[in-house]
Amino acid sequence: SSSPIVLGIETSCDDTGCAILNRRGDILGETLFSQTVVHLRYGGVNPLIARDMHRENIEKAVFKCLENSSLSMDNIDAIAVTVKPGLLISLEIGVKYAKYLSKIYKKPLIPIHHMEAHALAARMFQDIQLPFLTLLISGGNCLLAFVREIDDFLLLGDTLDNSPGEVFDKAARRMKLRNLPEYSGIAGGRAIEMAAKKAVDPFQFDFPLPLNRNRDCNFSFSGLQDSFLRHLLHKEKYHNIMGDEIIPEVNDLCAAFQLAMAEHIAHRTERAIKYCEMTNLFRGDVKNIVVSGGVACNDFIFKSIECIGNKYGCKVFRPPPKLCTDNGVMIAWNALEKLKHKSDSVNEPLEINPTAPLGK
Ligand code: KG4
């Protein structure tokens, strides 16, 4: 049978996502109410607006998802919901609604860790054996972890300051990229990736390699952000047709900045690979790396990780772009993985934890 059928709900940040998956991982229904365009106007996620939009969309997201799948709540065997980490008032909307559904329709609830879901999503499409190293790079996070089991993550590195997505978004905002018609409504990181492709001379801008001497797997993006702002400040500007101050070398700066971000992320990932090898975390010859999170959509950054991985005989994977960013599918998928592997974690209490770390 294709049972169990799981309904997944995601509201940890700024996307209201919902999906229904069967045991094989077929997507029977899927909805995503993205707030990206709204938050771009504020230069970052505004928590109160995020909460209000989740509140407005959560019921629609679930109903439309059921409608798409031609199923009713009676066909659902379990409800999975993101309980950690994320914005407290955003998480609350999804969790409250999941609890409400669970009570009315008498369905079990499965709590999901948002970052674990990002890492495991890659297994929906490709046969990626455990254990594996995972790099999760997004608008809210930046971490390296080793996935020993479906529910057993070992945190290797975290960011000491910002996340790469935040830094990309801020840089794009400072360059007024979004005011150019070709980038309107496009996430900051993606706009920078597109502009970088038009670069002529990216090597005119120098960037430091952060944490060069640190013998751990942590990240730091504040130095790159400062350098970026300094470069931008020191270049002569002209006013474009929109009245914005622009530097003529904007594409070169995007390429140089993207290269610096990629180098830092690849450098920290290389340390993590070495650590995994030294401590025999990989099992046998199989050395898998999974890259996910919104910034993993960046092909240049992904290819840099692939290069580093190949140097050590690792295979590097990422989910399709739609599943790299926040969505409900990965939440339902994570619950299915827990059920398949008979993980005790399905019975954990449904406790919201905005700052939950990954692993033990
Ligand atoms: O995972 P995600 O949807 O949610 C958050 O964690 O908020 O990631 C969104 C982030 C944004 O900061 C966006 O600028 C970044 O991912 N992003 C990219 C690209 N596409 C999205 N960054 C770099 N290159 C891209 N192509």
From TrEMBL:
Function: Required for the formation of a threonylcarbamoyl group on adenosine at position 37 (t(6)A37) in mitochondrial tRNAs that read codons beginning with adenine. Probably involved in the transfer of the threonylcarbamoyl moiety of threonylcarbamoyl-AMP (TC-AMP) to the N6 group of A37. Involved in mitochondrial genome maintenance.
Main location: mitochondrion
This protein's name: N(6)-L-threonylcarbamoyladenine synthase
Lineage, opening ranks: Eukaryota, Metazoa, Ecdysozoa, Arthropoda, Hexapoda
Biological process, per Gene Ontology: tRNA threonylcarbamoyladenosine modification
TM spans (from-to): none
Family: Belongs to the KAE1 / TsaD family.
Cofactor note text: Binds 1 divalent metal cation per subunit.
Organism, scientific name: Danaus chrysippus (African queen)
Listed EC numbers: 2.3.1.234
Keywords for this protein: Acyltransferase, Metal-binding, Mitochondrion, Transferase, tRNA processing
Compartment list: Mitochondrion
